[in-house]
Amino acid sequence: MSLIEIKNVSKEYIIGQTSTHALRDLSLQIDEGEFVTVMGPSGSGKSTFLTIAGGLSAPTSGRVAIDEIDVYSLRRDRLSDLRREYVGFVFQSFNLVPYLNVLENVLLPLAPTGLPAKQQASVAEDLLTEVGLYDKAKHLPGELSGGEQQRVAIARALVNDPLILLADEPTGNLDTATSESIMQLFRLLNERGKTILMVTHNPRYRSYSTRTIDFRDGTLVGDDAKNVQQITQKDTDDLARAQFEQFHRHSVQSAEEIKRR
Amino acid sequence: MKLYQIGLKNLRRRKLRTSLIIFGLALAVSIQVAISGISKSLESDFSRKLDEYGANILILPKTNDLSLDYGGLPIAGVSFGSAKLSMSDAAKIRTIKNSENIATVAPQIFRAAEVDAHRVIVSGVDFNSEFRQKPWWRFSGSRPEEPDDILAGSAAAQALNLKPGDDLEIAKHHFRVAGILTETGSQDDKLIFISLPAAQKVFDKGEALSIIEVSALCYNCPIDSIVAQIGEKLPNAQVTALRQTIETKMDVMHRIRHFSIILSAAVVLFAALMIFVNMMSSISEREKEIGIFRAVGFKRKHVLAVLIFESLIVSLSAGVVGYLLGLSGAYLARPLMSLHGLQGFGIGTILTALALAIFVGVSAAIYPAYKAAKSEPTVALRALL
Questions:
Q1: From the CA of A29, how many Å to the nearest CA of chain B?
Q2: So what's the ipTM on this one?
Q3: What is the pLDDT of residues A173-214, one digit of tens each?
Q4: Chain A partners of B300 at a C-beta cutoff of 8 Å?
Q5: Taking the mean position of all CA atoms in its chain, how far away is CA B127?
């Protein structure tokens, strides 16, 4: 069963007298656990695809279903609920709220939920620990490097524990080393079971994904689906921990350790 | 993390803008508070002065025989009426429920008398009450102090060729002319005023009175109520309110009130426009941020709640600051306006100031906030599309 099902989706932007076809009759299925790299030149429709798949922008025609829910038949409020429950977004320009500190930015999706403050803080602190930024919880985004800001954005995208992570050029504003670390983090999350759709211009990052799709002029021109490796949950956890600790050798500390300091 | 915390954080981030909005709205509230307070004080002060300025209630003996006129108002012929007014009646006026509204009670006796071959009207008055009730009286000579001192109206003095210090015989009693009234243009010009005890003695009227003039302070009470209360205390008297005086006074009061309302409304409207423009520009600046809220799962009502909460905080602060500014402004303006005291700065005004600030601030923010809440989350991704 597909987690995301896109059927005959078209998107047309009309600006004044001019109409632009961003997507043309796209049909696609994405299964749970896939890490899909979305590639294509600028203006090919890949970001439009991402926003439509994530419930941010309704298609001109066609149907999008997430977990068998017809996304765009939902009322606006229910659509907001669906976005919050199923989808986490990571943007190229991080899109952190500048006047909220790191912890508050991570907590942002929980603000309308009515979850008790202690529970909220516990979830957010665990995530910040995972992305290696627990000790910068009180910093404002402007005080962080680009890579750190993107990690905060990833933690924010994960705070609701969504099934799907959508990332639009998450490494677009980062240097190579930082980009690699972010990509490893995505791979780790995918190995833990997150379904990831990532738009990128960089072909190097195909290697992190399980599937790559290519867009040209709003049409899907390539789909090199790979087999998702069947591994057990224990294997996933062990692998994830090993990779994570290797990558964050200097920064990973448990919340308890930091509190003790 | 609660929605209101986002609003508070944003207000703290934009300290200058927040302060300016608060100051702008506070200024409007303060002007409204100051104008309202000053106009109330002015109204009260002015009303009190007008109330003291001449009588607004006349009390006559109840009779059908009306033979003498006083200022166009009929004075009962004391000789014919069966009912009479007395000094004890005058005292009873001070015992009505609204006695604190009674400024002056001026009992009077009128009697026609032959003086130096001229027939004049002699009026026995309580000079203290009379001078309080007629602050426009000016005279040459001195104010009557002794029991046999008289004050002559200008026409009467001219007819009798009187000057201050002259002796005058009225009904075989000797008096001294203490002062001559300058022309008033009223019936007072033709009268000769003597003290009430002297008049009672000269005319052998005992405690009988012709008329009682009352100045009632009607700022806070309807004159009809005072008239009814006096009527109850004096069942044998005819109590009449001088409508024209009262209505003129009320007209002046209404004009003051209308002027202050129009001025306040203009200032408040200006403030509302200022906040509206400010909110619109602020929303436009925060478009991306609102897009982020929507992208991470905020519903429209959540965005609306954050923005309305912000305007509520700004409005409440402006209400408090505005009240204090308005109070200070009115206090400073008090000597310039020659006001004795300030009115209208109690708890009611505080609540009104807060309500006004909230009404103006929130209602000016509703449309921009609604417009912002309607924006789609794709705005946050616009640069990438």
A1: 22
A2: 0.76
A3: 888 888 888 898 889 989 988 999 999 988 888 889 999 999
A4: 76-77, 80
A5: 27
CA nearest to B304 within chain A: A112
* Predicted pLDDT at A245: 53
Residue whose tokens read 């006695």: B99
Q: Which amino acid makes up residue A185? A: L
Residues 6+ apart with CB under 8 A from B357: B25, B26, B29, B315, B316, B318, B319, B322
For B10-64, how does the pLDDT look when each residue is reduced to its tens digit (9 = 90+)?
Answer: 888 888 888 988 888 898 888 888 888 887 777 777 766 666 666 788 898 876 5
Give which of A60, A80, A81, A159 to mutate to test B binding, by max B Cβ within 10 Å. Answer: A80
Residue of chain B nearest A45, judged by CA positions: B385
Q: Which of A84, A111, A168 sits opposite B3 (nearest CB)?
A: A111
Q: With an 8 Å Cβ cutoff, are B288 and A95 in contact?
A: yes
Around Cβ B80, how many Cβ atoms within 10 Å? 12
Q: What is the token pair recorded at B345?
A: 């700065």
Q: Between these two residues, A247 and B89, which has the higher pLDDT value?
A: B89
Contact state of A99 with B292 under an 8 Å Cβ cutoff = no
Domains of chain A: 32-61+74-260 (3.40.50.300)
Residue B3: which of B369, B360, B340, B303 has the closest Cα? B303
Sign of the dihedral through C-alpha A21, A26, A30, A35? negative
Q: What is the dihedral of CA B267, B270, B275, B277, to 10 degrees?
A: -170
Q: How far is A238 from chain B (nearest CA, A)?
A: 30
| Structure confidence by residue, pLDDT tens digits, B299-331 | 888 999 998 999 899 999 999 999 999 888 888
Reduced to 3 states (helix: H, G, I; strand: E, B; else coil), residue A177 is helix
Task: Tell whether the torsion through CA atoms of B203, B205, B211 and B214 is positive or negative.
Answer: positive
**What's the gap in Å between the CA of B322 and the closest CA on chain A?**
28
Query: Which of A48, A51, A105, A122 is the mutation pick for testing B, counting most B CBs within 10 A?
Result: A51
CA distance A11 to A24: 7
Residue B15 to residue B109: CA distance in whole angstroms? 74
Residues A104, B9: C-beta atoms closer than 8 Å: yes
**Cβ <8 Å between A160 and B297:** yes
Give CB contacts under 8 A, 24+ apart, made by B92-98: B92/B233, B92/B234, B93/B59, B93/B212, B93/B214, B93/B230, B93/B233, B93/B234, B95/B233, B96/B226, B96/B229, B96/B230, B96/B232, B96/B233, B97/B229, B98/B216, B98/B221, B98/B225, B98/B226, B98/B229
